[in-house]
Amino acid sequence: MSEIKAVLFDMDGVLIDAQEWHYEALNEVLQIFGYEITREMHEDRYDGLSTSKKLQMLTNEVGLPEHIHGMINRIKQDRTLRIAAQKCFPNVSHQVLVSKLKYKNIKVGVVTNSIRQTTEFMLTYAGLLDSLDVLVTNQDVSEPKPNPECYLIAMEKLGVSPLETVIVEDSPYGIMAAKASGATVVTVKSVDEVTLDLLHGVVPGILQ
To answer: Where are the chain's structural domains?
Structure first.
């Protein structure tokens, strides 16, 4: 096995428990126009996608007018930031994990389907932004997850290969992107699983 030189984290559902914030914020706006992403729809095929992709799917599936996508997206992002300002706090386990990786000279990055403004806002509130070596958002790619482009860009910026990289993901689309990148993939079901113990089997010496 190659030496691990970088660990890349998804953000929503991995480092920050923000999936419900995005779901709540988008539905608040959609309901003004008489539309909704039901819980079943969300869990079945919408979770982990960018807001733009979700809106396009709603247009294709239920006829959401395309000319209001931009308005919905802007209002949704503003609402998400307001929710995050109330609910986003540092997670000590995550801060310890990132600090330990940096101590081991392992580069750390976040790769997300969220936009840069929201991402930087949440990571700042979580006390993690200044520790990152790379940050890739959906505004840095031509195709978001499940396309692996975002992860490949992050690796290129860090100067590491897929064999030298570990990716931590939670959503089906994120996991698809991570696996397609060729890196080692570690999956989680909640932010509480993201600890030193999680990477014990793939990053030698992480507990030392």
So the answer is: 6-16+90-199, 19-87
Calpha distance 50→138 (Å, rounded): 7
- Return the number of other C-beta atoms located less than 10 Å from residue 159's C-beta: 10
CATH 1.10.150 matches 19-87: yes
Summarize pLDDT for 90-135 with one digit per residue, the tens: 999 999 999 999 999 999 999 999 999 999 999 999 999 999 999 9
Q: Which tokens belong to 12? A: 């929503």
Secondary structure class of 171 (helix, strand, coil): coil
Task: Please tell me the pTM assigned to this model.
Answer: 0.92
Distance (Å, rounded) from C-alpha 92 to C-alpha 48? 24
Q: Which two tokens mark 163? A: 């064999």
Q: Which fold has domain 6-16+90-199?
A: Rossmann fold (3.40.50)
